[in-house]
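Q: What does the predicted 3D structure of E3 ubiquitin-protein ligase look like?
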Amino acid sequence: MYEELFMFYHKRQCEMCNNVPKDPSLCLICGQLICIRESCCRNGNSFEGVHHSRKCGAGTALYLAVNSSTIILIRGRKACAWGSVYLDEFGEEDRDLKRGKPLFLCNERYRILEQQWLTHSFLNINKKWIYHTNMI
């Protein structure tokens, strides 16, 4: 259940700055909690999300935004919101957790995300990429 994951990470401290992130994000590759889109963990000109993507995934990263259940992808200088692997009982996303319905891991969506990760096919499949300018 997503509620358990949310409760575990929602008020957890970042390992780099020891602050509780406003928008905690979980790296789906290594499991590290990062301060995404915050300047507290800057490394040179890069925010922590971009820096961690270079360190952990050679420029590619998958983050689960804990406060919204959305997967954020970083691939080189581009980023996009992928959607969610957590769905309600009717198979619908609850972006930004506004409806308050219980969410469960959707194995099918998780397999799709995993396949895109393994084949590096994100750029071909997702159409709404933005240039992040190292600010993620």
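A (community wiki): The structure tokens above were generated from the sequence. The longest strand covers residues 60-65. Helices lie at 2-9, 48-57, 107-119, 122-125.
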